[in-house]
Amino acid sequence: MNRSEPSPEPQPSRLFFSPRGAGKGSVRVSLAVLASITLLCLLGPLVSPHPYDRVYRDYVLVGPSLSPHPSAAEIDQAVDEIARRMHAQIEIQSLDGEALQATLAGDKPIDARALRAFERSDIFSAPRIIGREDEGRRLRIEASLKPMFFLFGTDANGRDLLTRILIAGRVSLSVGLLASLVALLIGVGYGAIAGYAGGGADALMMRLVEIIYALPFIFFVIVLVMVFGRHFALIFVAIGAVEWLDMARIVRGQTLSIKRKDYVAAAEALGATPAAILRRHVVPNAAGPIIAYLALLIPRVILLESFVSFLGLGVQEPLTSWGVLIADGARNIQSAVHLLIFPAIFLGATLGALQSLGNSWRDSFDARSN
User: Would you say the pTM of this structure is higher than 0.90?
Assistant: First the structure.
């Protein structure tokens, strides 16, 4: 008597966000990179000693360094500039890491109010007179130094590059998230309605999508700038107006497949409205490819915003984005290459992590579907 083969035990269903194989490690790395960059951009400017729009006239195009400023050369240059403004001669007596002692000599008695030139510099604090000679023609002063750190250096206007990169990250990430959210809402709704309606309504709605596809994006942005002027909100409008098209096509294709399922037919037989069917059955069952494409859409939107800002049509000074910083770095690449390298690293790491995350989720969905 032949024994029947034992039936295989039911396997637990895999969640969509549980990648198989080596993709699990790449998801963890991508999430760690994104979390680190996001926390830096959110919290970094709050603890930075340099406001993102503060101009340091004595520190223009300073290179990246772990050493504190000012250096001896920067002090000498600042002293020469102050002496020129005061029409006096300054002889440095002693210099240490905390204070400068010098003697000021002039043809006429030196007015103490002229010492405010030290206060207006970014290197010295308010000086203190420690001695007078020759009826006030010679003053011995002591001025404390202002130690500063510029880990990533400064830009052509003397602004701290690290703080500006973190502020730019806030702008670029917010544009990527909000514009992607707009594309998600419009694309999912439009594609689901078109796919479920079918027939002439579907054909008409998709012809409209193809017409919008034919419009050049840069031309659309230029028209918006000419009509409404340069404004930060225009970036969301311009990007959100075109990036929902691919989402609509994806959701439409999924809807055409899902609406033939038995559970949709059962819901229709029970008298469920089309809106209820789309909300309860179609969109939830199409969530896999929607989320996978959304993870790929965010880096695309960030790159698009950077490209628009690189052309000078995006955010305006003193606000900045990674695209604006990269454009500034490209203009100063010969004299200050750090202006290009550091924002490009942040942008590249963010785009790479998002792209890797989207690819892993897409592969996981494909494996689950098969």
Answer: no
